Amino acid sequence: MKKMVNNFEITELWKSFFLNITFCIRIPKHYVQTVGRSTVPGAYDRSRKSAVVRSISSNYSKALSSYFGTKTPNQEEAIGSHNAYVTALRAHGTEVTVLPELSNFPDSCFVEDTAVMVDGKAIIPNMGHPTREGEQQAVMDHMSDFAEIIRMPKGAKLDGGDIVFFDDRYLVGISTRTNKEGAEFLSTFIKEDGYDVELISVPDTTLHLTTVCSSPREGTVIAAEGHLKESQISRFAEEIIWIPNNESYASNTIGYSNDRLIVAGGFPKTKNILQNEGFRLMSVDMEPIMQADGSLTCLSVFTS
Description:
Layout: H1 7-25, E1 50-54, H2 75-91, E2 95-99, E3 116-118, E4 121-124, H3 136-143, E5 148-151, E6 163-166, E7 169-174, H4 180-192, E8 196-201, E9 213-214, E10 220-224, H5 230-233, E11 239-243, E12 254-256, E13 260-264, H6 268-276, E14 280-284, H7 287-290, E15 301-302
Parallel strand pairs: 1-2, 4-5, 7-8, 10-11, 13-14
Antiparallel strand pairs: 1-15, 3-4, 6-7, 9-10, 12-13
């Protein structure tokens, strides 16, 4: 005699079926970790165990400002924001090394631009703006204690602000600060270590790729409306969270595991959008940093 299946059992079977489908949908298209390969900062688990930052320059008032700035950058105010930023990183478990200020380089607090970490290697670029050339030396001196230093050849230029870590790949922006030669040089080392590369054309409406783009969790990209096109992102991202154009600055975020996210304060629409997406937010007042066209990620290099 055949066993009768009651309504309760049928319901449970359907629940299991749909839960399995949902789980499959949340797996990023290209999220495949190579066994035995160490992770890059921001990849896979977004643990961000250690970072390097640099104190605000005593000549910060002379920092470059063409996009977000509405007044002369103020050193004292920027120091306050920088201290709050370091506190936020440490609150999320990141061990932070603070390098001393460089008076000869007004933009030197934006240390992200001076090095790109690729599996134990520090790729040191030629800076995208001539007034910033020379900032790299002090960073190299520090990183040589724990990383292999690789210098970019002449003719190639790149700012670390054009690099976004995304799961199993690097997003590399071609911008006014990063040329094709610089992107291709970096891509060689990325591919040698088994990661993929996505080259993205950055419009002149923004400074860097990270200025309007970040990845807070697996498979997800936060992007500002009016800059990048959906077709540039959808080919590798499972989910795109669009930030209103008038809050473009807030699309630059720092994601940690378990949907924890550091965001710039003062952007209520973005805050609401991200909270509705399930993120737990910590805000930092970045207005004094914004005056010199800097964002959250600009202030650090994650080294492990």
